Each structure stands twice: as structure tokens, then as C-alpha cells.
Please model this.
Amino acid sequence: MGTANVGRFDRMIRISLGIILIAMVFVGPKSAWGWVGLVPLFTGLFRWCPAYLPFGFSTCKK
Model:
């Protein structure tokens, strides 16, 4: 894994969205698509997003 490229605000949004999507597996529509929430959850927890790499993008403060 590379250096952190996910900033504080981006991280909070990703973790919140991930938890909400995963909760959809157990409550609400009970859709298996909720497991997609693992992607934003893990990218938020590890502060690293591989999709940012090809573009050299980072939301971290320098």
C-alpha cells in the first residue's frame, strides 16, 4: 500500500457511507449490494484509495 491519499473529510464521508451501505444488508431493503460498502469503508479506514493513483489525486493536506 502507498502513502495516505485520503484526507480527513473524505475519510469521514467514506466510513459513514460504507457503514450505511453495509447496514442495508441487514435492515431496510436487505440487498446484497450493501456489501459494496466495504470498498469505501476500507479506503476510509486505511486512508488510501487506489482509484486516486492514476491521476495523482490526494485529498490530504500537504
